[in-house]
## 1
Amino acid sequence: MYKAKVLVKRRPSILDPQGKAVEKGAEHLGLKNIKETRIGKYIEFLVDTDDKSSAENEVNEYCHKLLANPIMEDYEFTLEPASPLASQSKKAK
Amino acid sequence: MKPKFGVVVFPGSNCDHDAYYSLKKVLGFDVVFLWHKDTNLENSDVIILPGGFSYGDYLRTGAIARFSPIMKSVIDFAEKGGYVMGICNGFQILLEAGLLPGVLLKNKSLQFVCKDVYLSVENKDTIFTRGIRSKDKLKFPVAHGEGNYFADEDTLKKLVDNNQIVFKYTSLNGNDDFNPNGSIMDIAGIINKEKNVLGLMPHPERSCDPILGKTDGSLVFNSIASSFLN
């Protein structure tokens, strides 16, 4: 089993009015060095297979067809071995 | 023959009843609701994807609705030349489904915009607009947070070359502030190359009943209907 961590970012050519609005907040906070704030999405999930290349294929398809819209967004992801039991026992606490 | 309209209902649709009411009670057409989990289009001649917030707008507007069971049938129907009209969230779904090109970004103002706008009809040679002869500018309401149409230069060039831009925001009195969302080229609605799938942000179904003070939307639906009569 793998844990996937996906980062979806707006393409550099696409304006990010949300990032701009948030950056206004930084100005109001008195932070003078904050530039080019851009807001993306972080998504994590488990992939229930021990075959890394099939996990990669599935994550790619998930990203390409659903999690990101390739017209306006780019994505990147990492996969690391994970144990579902560990995440369940964390929940139990 | 009168066309039969099918209005798709997604979880979070909220203009489905507006569309049903205008088509059935105001204009007198046959209309059925189509549930998102079904796959049967019930012999509808025209499919309406209504406005709203399908699946809570989670991830991106329209992104999850696109994978509903009914959408597989709608996509097949459209690919065979069936007429499909996406209004507001329905337009967002058509873009996510790849039936129309481009994307809808957050409004330039970052605000949800809810007001009447005026539209110019840029292509009067589609079944959706052929019957619009009497008016140059249509008054429809908009109500959206993500209606800022964007496409890359190649796509825009194709839209222009193939006459796919159907509606643009326009000014009634020469006032500059007529584009409600910052959409590129003031685009409010586009059609696919084959001219059977239309998507637009403004709401023609909320501009049918005279009690609401505007009826230009009925020109669009009557236009569709009259092409079935011929």
Note: The longest strand of chain A covers residues 2-10.
## 2
Amino acid sequence: MHIPDGILPAQVCAAGYAIATPVAWYSLRKINRQPDPTVGIPKAALLTATFFVASSIHIPVPPVSVHLVLNGLLGAILGYYAFPAILIGLFFQAVIIGHGGLTTLGVDAAMMGIPAILAYQVFRLRHPLAKRFNRRFADGMAGFLAGMVGLGLAAVIFMTLIITTLPPGLDAATEKSAIYGLSLAHVPLAVLEGAFTAMLVLFFQRVKPELLEDHWQKKPSKASDLTTEQAERV
Amino acid sequence: MVFNLVTLDRKRFTFIRWLKPEMILILAIIFVLVTAQRSLAHGAVIEYRTTQALEVQAVYDTGEPLANAQVTVYSPENLSDPWLTGTTDPQGRFLFTPDPSISGNWDVQIRQAGHGDIVSIPIGEGNEAIATTSDASDSDSGNALFSSSSNGSTATLNPLQKWIMAGSVVWGLFGTAMFFAARSKQNAHS
């Protein structure tokens, strides 16, 4: 899933940074606009550690093997914290484990981080869902969808990126079939990550429901008032 | 007398009985040789000479080889057009003989489904240079080529070092979590 150095042309790497930077800035601004931006940090730090380790957990899907990504899970539970969390996790993965690379950090962050934010939006469907079904089912279902959408979208972006940037010296047919094979192997992984996200969400729901609370949309008018008040105080 | 008889007998045999078959045999041998040569003219000529080759091996960090992955070799003179292309064997290995007259860094890229790496192998003038670089690539293939950066001769981290570093990162992240959790608790109390 991680694109290493030397696979993508330089323009694409630059474009990756050009996309990831404003998204990171937007996420940090969203975090900073919260009443207390540090509230989410313990959760985000723990899930960054999980994300960092997850890519070393390989799951064989014959004939290939895939690894956990958990970007959908991070999106569902962290909201906008997910993007900086993924960015930090990817940086450490590139430097220490050798997954991905520093030139492709922007591309990888955009590829996994933007689907994570979308997964968060999907996870928020649990509120309308809860009106029709019971709370537990709605949370589980939304968690499942969020985990699946996060990974599925990242896999689609990965496939598109690699296929559209095939270098001319390569046997395109062989490489394409290998890419399709790998992408197909991500279908069971998406289901697995969806199930894992649903399980974790249901666990939090039972043990510590405040972990799942949205701090972002709670009081839209008052939040801005609070930030101006804070700014005045500072 | 006996001796005479034998020689007589022989003479009779050679000149009368064995003359024709012998000639037929000789003719047959000549025919076979001629036709064989004719058919040989249709075949290939194989010569051999010893030469220095480079073996590169690509494995995923799980230890699984990159089997049937595409290999692109770029000579130092032309970094945009491949000098040689091929595929790895089921063990992820690829063997090729670089042109020793072109000295400099030969780039070998091995990729499969968007994964892979480039290794840069310095080839100098003379056989010794080739020998040392092939050693370097050998020691490289023992490790995960995946994690080896652009320079083939740099030592890569062993798994223990890697896991200790990864563990430190996880520990640091846990520490960050604990720090902010404790702080928010303090804030709640005060």
Note: Chain B has four helices and six strands.
